[in-house]
Amino acid sequence: MGGHRVPSDVRLDERTAIVTGANAGIGLETARGLYERGARVLLAVRSVSRGEAARAQLERQVAGAAPPAGSLHVMQLDLASLASVRAFAERINREEARLDLLINNAGLVLAERTETQDGFETTFGVNHLGHFLLTMLLLDKLKASAPARVVVLSSAAHKRGHIEFDDLQLTLWLQLVEKLFAEQTRESPFRARAVSSPI
Ligand SMILES: NC(=O)c1ccc[n+]([C@@H]2O[C@H](COP(=O)([O-])OP(=O)(O)OC[C@H]3O[C@@H](n4cnc5c(N)ncnc54)[C@H](OP(=O)(O)O)[C@@H]3O)[C@@H](O)[C@H]2O)c1
Fold first, then answer.
1. Which CATH number is 38's domain given?
2. pTM for the complete prediction?
3. Which residue of 37, 86, 106, 198 could cross-link 20, Cys pair, CB 3.0 to 4.6 Å?
């Protein structure tokens, strides 16, 4: 992976960090950086097998490092399920002595509208609501470990758009797309077929 590297050599021994979506992309690289610096890193992943593969990869890559790396622990967390978020937070609050860093990294962008287990539009439910509930449920643990930090991954893409507060569930937007599609179908059946083609 290219891009910038964090030059800091600050050690994170005795620190505990949660990274959501730690099995891939930015989350995996973030977990690596924290692990290399000595942190106890909890890999919060929706698929335990993908999490275990990431853990094995990081342990292989960082093996024999000096000073020694911290530790990696795979924990199941599906941000598309508020029940899963509650169960995860309950386990952290029960089992972890401290929590110094919560990195809200997991995220997705979907080509079509789907819903989470709780009936929220999935992008909104996973990227925002799941992380919001998770942060609220872990706040006391974070405060008790002060100075602690919550880091929220975002995107520069927000500069190109705005929040439709009257349509957080994307239902009006979907109706608009369907209406435009129906109009196109009436005007040009051939073009509509091309638009709906998976190719
Ligand atoms: N990459 C960029 O250029 C870029 C730009 C702007 C913003 N961002 C933001 O940076 C963050 C990371 O992006 P990335 O490019 O590293 O993404 P990525 O490679 O697609 O990884 C996303 C991670 O989120 C996890 N995830 C998705 N749905 C989840 C759920 N319901 N519960 C728990 N975990 C879930 C994925 O797990 P699975 O592997 O199981 O699917 C994966 O580990 C995101 O919030 C993204 O919006 C990225």
1. 3.40.50.720
2. 0.90
3. 106
